[in-house]
Amino acid sequence: MTEATLPVIEDCDGCSACCNRTPIPPFQPGEEAALNVPDELLTPIRERIASDQHFDLLPCVWLQKDQGLCRHYEFRPQACRDFEPGSMLCRLSREDEGIRRP
Hints:
The protein is mainly alpha-helical and 102 residues long. The protein has one domain (9-96). The chain has five helices and two strands; from the N terminus they run αααββαα. It has helices at residues 17-20, 31-34, 39-51, 78-82, 88-96; strands spanning 63-64, 69-70. The chain has a two-stranded antiparallel sheet with strand order 1-2. The longest helix has 13 residues, at 39-51. The radius of gyration is 14 Å and the shape is globular.
C-alpha cells in the first residue's frame, strides 16, 4: 500500500494499532521519574523486559485491549503524547494491524 492509498485518520477512537506495535511504554531514560510514575505501574514493564519475550509480537503492557485504551494514560511517555493521529506512522501502523477504516 502506498502513502496515497492509506486512509487519512482524524482520531484514535477504538484503534490502538500503535500500542499493538509497542510492547512496553517507550520511556526515555529518567522519564518515568520525571512523570512520577508509581512503581506498581512499572512492574509489568520490568517483568516483560526480564522475560526476554519476542517484543515485536506483543502489545503494550499498559494497553486495555478490549477497549483499545491505555490503562495509565495520565502517565504515558512523551513519545505516546507526541504520536499524531493521521501521521504516516499512524496510518502504517493501522495498515499493519489490518485496520482499513478511516
